[in-house]
Amino acid sequence: MSGKFIVFEGVEGSGKTTQIQQIQSWLQRCRLLDPATRIVTTREPGGTALGQQLRQILLQSTDDLIQDRTELLLYAADRAQHVEAYLKPLLAAGAIVLCDRYTDSTVAYQGYGRQLDQILIEQLNQIATGGLVSDLTFWLDVEVELGLERAQGRAAHDRIERADLSFHRRVQQGFTQLAAAHPQRIVRIDASLSPEAVSQQIQQVLQARLQDWYGIEFA
Ligand SMILES: Nc1ncnc2c1ncn2[C@@H]1O[C@H](COP(=O)(O)OP(=O)(O)OP(=O)(O)O)[C@@H](O)[C@H]1O
Ligand SMILES: [Mg+2]
């Protein structure tokens, strides 16, 4: 039986990591699912041991050290490893996988943000994923300024967070365009609300999908 691949996307501080944890525990408490179903969380970059090293390079390097195309290729390398070594086996074993960022982040950050060639990015995404597409992607939509403000509340600021505001605005435009282009796969969530209200929206969408996928009935 094949599992389900659910991705969380959005700008810095949109609440991806917070929501993935909430949704994991909500799914684990969901009695309607087969108790044998594994609910796994992972992230890009850094979902594998090799990916963890790439994440260090990507996020902790000095700001001007990594060229834009180098950055693109490092993200692609992380993804190729993640898909083959981690995601595919888990999905083949029937797990529900909640993933923090995937291909849409590359389109938004490297395509719109860094303004690299979109066709090149699509080709690279295809190579890195071997065709693995998410079953459902939540786009946590929040104003760039609010997201950055939330992210500033955390201790350390990574290389991407430190990029200028116009970069983050282009990234946001990227997610907006992607959601318009893929209305079936990408569901927009109003992420400006409280964590509980954001989680409620995600749960509502997920309930409908779980009914479709597993034939279970929520009351
Ligand atoms: N809905 C919310 N309202 C207010 N604060 C929130 C909300 N969701 C998350 N936060 C807080 O904002 C900060 C950023 O949230 P989180 O780390 O979940 O975002 P993220 O999308 O994973 O960010 P990044 O892209 O940088 O990894 C955290 O300190 C978190 O506690
Ligand atoms: Mg996060």
UniProtKB/TrEMBL annotation:
ATP binds at G10, V11, E12, G13, S14, G15, K16, T17. InterPro entries: P-loop_NTPase, Thymidylate_kin-like_dom, Thymidylate_kin_CS, Thymidylate_kinase. Its EC number is 2.7.4.9. It catalyses: dTMP + ATP = dTDP + ADP. GO terms for biological process: dTDP biosynthetic process; dTTP biosynthetic process; dUDP biosynthetic process. PROSITE patterns: THYMIDYLATE_KINASE (PS01331). One of its GO terms (molecular function) is dTMP kinase activity. GO terms for cellular component: cytosol. It comes from the Bacteria. Keywords: ATP-binding, Kinase, Nucleotide biosynthesis, Nucleotide-binding, Transferase. Residues 8-202 form the Thymidylate kinase-like domain. The keyword Transport does not apply. Phosphorylation of dTMP to form dTDP in both de novo and salvage pathways of dTTP synthesis. PANTHER family: THYMIDYLATE KINASE (PTHR10344), UMP-CMP KINASE 2, MITOCHONDRIAL (PTHR10344:SF4). NCBIfam families: DTMP_kinase. Belongs to the thymidylate kinase family. This is Thymidylate kinase. The lineage of its organism: Bacteria, Bacillati, Cyanobacteriota, Cyanophyceae, Oculatellales.
